[in-house]
């Protein structure tokens, strides 16, 4: 990300380098989001149906606030 920011700060921005760096940043972001989602799936799969119900209730309560 720092590299992308430094590229964008230049008075004349190199489009090809910026696009390449953006692809790297977006790829890293995608991998992080994928890992987060997969972790949530694994956690949910380890919960009993009663625990899943309790979790849903807690999530709903937190949305009300």
How would you characterize this protein structure?
The protein has 65 residues and is mainly α. Helices cover 86% and strands 0% of the residues. It has one domain. It has 3 helices and no strands. α1 (2-9) runs antiparallel to α2 (15-46). The chain is elongated, with a radius of gyration of 20 Å. The two termini are 34 Å apart. The mean pLDDT is 95.
Structure classification: mainly alpha
> Over the alpha carbons, how many angstroms does the gyration radius reach?
20 Å
Low-pLDDT windows of residues:
none
Straight-line N-to-C gap:
34 Å
Main beta sheet, described?
none
Q: What overall form do the CA principal axes indicate?
A: elongated
The average pLDDT value, as a whole number, equals 95
């Amino acid at each position: 990300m720092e590299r992308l920011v430094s590229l964008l700060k230049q008075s004349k921005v190199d489009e090809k380098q910026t696009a390449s760096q953006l692809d790297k940043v977006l790829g890293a972001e995608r991998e992080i989001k994928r890992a987060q989602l997969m972790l949530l799936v694994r956690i949910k799969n380890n919960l009993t149906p009663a625990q899943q119900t309790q979790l849903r209730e807690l999530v709903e309560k937190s949305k009300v606030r």
